Amino acid sequence: MGGTIAMVPGGRGGVVPALDAGELIAAVPGLAGLGLEITARGLRSLPSPSIGFGDLVALADAVKAEIAGGARGVVVTHGTDTIEETAIFLDLTVPGPAPVVVTGAMRAPTSAGADGPANLYAAIRVAAAEEARGLGALVVMSDEVHGARFVRKGHTSSMAAFVSPGFGPLGLVVEGEPRLRGTPRVPMSLAASDKVAGLRVGLITVALGDDGEILRRAGEVCDGIVLAGLGAGHVPADMVPVVAEVAGRVPVVLASRTGSGSVLRQTYGYPGSERDLLDRGLVHAGFLDPAKARVLLLLLLADGADKERITAAFEHYR
Ligand code: ASP
Description:
It contains nine helices and 14 strands. It is elongated, with a radius of gyration of 20 Å. Helix 3 runs parallel beside helix 8 (290-302). It has two domains: 4-180, 3-Layer(aba) Sandwich (Rossmann fold); 199-317, Rossmann fold, CATH 3.40.50. The chain has helices spanning 21-26, 53-68, 83-93, 116-127, 213-221, 240-247, 274-279, 290-302, 307-314; strands spanning 7-9, 15-17, 74-77, 100-103, 137-141, 144-147, 152-153, 162-163, 171-174, 177-180, 201-205, 224-229, 252-256, 283-284. Strand 11, helix 5 (213-221) and strand 12 form a beta-alpha-beta unit. The relative contact order is 0.11. It is an alpha/beta fold. The protein starts with 6 loop residues before the first strand and ends with a helix. The mean pLDDT is 97. The structure holds aspartic acid. Aspartic acid (ASP) binds at residues 3-4, 47-48, 79-81, 104-106.
C-alpha cells in the first residue's frame, strides 16, 4: 500500500513511496529457507495519511481474493500513521480464520537501522503460523504481534512506536518463531462496500472550555460522529445541549481521548458525565479508541445499521 517501508528519497527532499511489493520482499534476508511460497502484489503506493476508505475497500477485496485463491495468510505493507485504522477495517471485513497481518516501518529503507525488512520477515512468519489463525487482523511491528482492536501508534518516531494500551501485545516473534497467546477475534463481519467512501463520520475531540460549536457544525455535515470525550467519556456542561441535539439526528459514539481504557457507564452523575451522555442517547464505544470507533461506525452505517444494531455492535468491545 506504500508507507515508509517502501519509501526512498524523492526529488524535492524527504522520502516518498516508490518501492513495489517484489522489491520489499527481495530485501528480506532468510525468506528462501522458510519453504514458503510467497507471491507479491502491488495495490497502492501512498503515504498512509492519504489512504481513503475507497482504498480500504479495494484492499479488503484484494485480501479476500488472495485467500479465496488459496493463500494461507496475507501480509499488507502499509504506512504506520494510519495502520491501526486499516487493521481494524480488515478485521471487520475479511471473514474466516486466515491471518491478515499488517506491517510497516518507522525508518525508510535508505536510513541507518531500517526496520522494514525485519518487520516484513516477522509479519510473513506470523501470517504463515497455525496459531495466528482465527485471531483476526494483526499488526506486527518490532517483533510484537498486536490485535487490530487494541493496537495504536503511540509514538511519532520510536522504533517501538506500537502499543496495545491496557492489553499488551497478543504475542511475540522470538528468533523468528511466532509465540502467540491471543484471544479470538470479535465475531462480527461487515461488508466492505463502496458506500463506505460516500459517508462522512466525524471525529471530534473534546477539550477544556469546549462550547460545542465545532460539534454542532460537524453535526450538520456528518452521517455520524465519534466524540473523543474527556477522561472516561465526559464533556463540559455547556456542551451538553449541543451533544443531545446532534445525537437526536445522527448516531454519536462516545469514546475517550485518553488513549487507554474503556468509557465508563455508571460512575459520574454531573451534567456532561458519561451517565448523562449515555442517557441522552450516545452509543458507548467500550474500549475502542476514537479512530477505531469511527471505522466501525462507518462500516455499520454503510451496511444500513440502525441505532439498536450500532449499539449492539459496540457491545462486543465492552
Ligand atoms: N508517514 C508515513 C506513512 O504513514 C509513516 C510511516 O509509514 O511510518 O506513510
